[in-house]
Write a structure and sequence with these properties.
The protein has 2 domains: 214 residues, Glutamine Phosphoribosylpyrophosphate, subunit 1, domain 1 (4-Layer Sandwich), CATH 3.60.20.10; 84 residues, Ribosomal protein S10 (Alpha-Beta Plaits), CATH 3.30.70. Helices cover 24% and strands 31% of the residues. Helix 4 crosses helix 5 and helix 5 packs across helix 6.
């Protein structure tokens, strides 16, 4: 049992307290799991910038100088690929902002960025032209150290985890980034029975995974469908047929958000929608503060999918 939530401003407004909104949802959904909490947040970056969120296992280094050496080595490799605009270390996550990125930078380039980061034994949590993934072990309050309440943006996802098959670890926390695709993230409640088969199939085609978690497979599967030319709506429909097991998941892209439910509707989802926004959560109580007289509240049925775009 996990808690999933999402929020999307339909008018694309980016000057609103998105982090506070998702934090409130995650705090309520913590009743469904306190092993870890995470968010994928979509804000605004200057043109030709991308932002990287990197997990540094600081406890594996003996002294601070080791950590500094790792960061220096990492940024040195990155400078061969792009200019570095800013580097900021908060909590256990290093935020690196790059500039001079071409608008048509492809996934091969993003793969090189990923390799430059992870050659040091660190893990890249996300690449985004607007998306940043922040997550940590424990309840939502653990994310306050990352400046969540200061984050303004247009949409995002949140997740509270009750670990079932894989270990309690920040790297196994949600959301999962669809590596190496920028700006695509997934949060999932459920359990896939064919994720190993799907992962091997995607690996044979060159994709790499950072964990054995089934939810990471969903993220890459959908991103691959989008690369093949499918719409987000059609990609979600395809997942109903291709994913075996129980699932309700939310997915976010640079300009949209969507959900998919399995054929048995085993995992809950409530949607609150009006002309200004759509909010989704595992439990209605996480949406109560947003519901007003002009808000439609409904529970999607089995095999249903829906997307919203700016």
């Amino acid at each position: 049992m996990c808690g999933i939530g999402g929020f999307f401003y339909k008018n694309g407004d980016t000057d609103v307290p998105l982090g506070t909104r998702l934090f409130s949802m995650a705090s309520v959904l913590g009743s469904r799991g306190l092993d870890s909490t995470g968010m994928a947040l979509y804000g605004v970056l200057p043109s030709n910038h991308i932002v990287l969120r990197v997990h540094l296992e600081s406890n594996q280094f003996n002294v601070d100088a080791d950590l500094e050496s790792i960061i220096d080595s990492m940024t040195s490799r990155l400078r061969k690929l792009s200019s570095i605009y800013d580097v900021n270390y908060i909590g256990n996550i290093l935020r690196i902002e790059l500039d001079g990125i071409e608008d048509n930078a492809n996934i091969e380039y993003m793969s090189k960025i990923t390799e430059a980061i992870e050659e040091s034994g660190t893990e890249l949590f996300s690449i985004g032209k607007s998306m940043e993934i922040i997550k940590d072990v424990g309840p939502a309050i653990q994310l306050e150290d990352y400046g969540i309440h200061d984050f303004k943006g247009s949409h995002g996802l949140t997740h509270t985890r009750l670990a079932t098959e894989s270990r309690v670890d920040i790297c196994y926390s949600h959301p999962f980034w669809a590596r190496p695709f920028p700006d695509i993230a997934v949060v999932h409640n459920g359990q896939l029975t064919n994720h190993n088969t799907l992962r091997r199939s995607l690996q044979r085609r060159g994709y790499q995974f950072s964990t054995t978690n089934d939810s990471e497979v969903i993220a890459v599967f959908i991103a691959d469908q989008l690369l093949a030319g499918l719409t987000l709506q059609d990609s979600l429909k395809a997942s109903i047929e291709e994913l075996d097991g129980t699932f309700t998941y939310l997915i976010s892209t640079e300009d949209g958000i969507g959900f998919a439910k399995d054929r048995f509707s085993t995992k809950p989802l409530i949607v609150a929608e009006n002309k200004s926004f759509v909010a989704l959560a595992s439990e209605e109580v996480a949406l109560n503060s947003m519901i007003s007289s002009d808000t439609d509240l409904y529970e999607p049925t089995a095999s249903s999918v829906k997307t919203w775009h700016r």
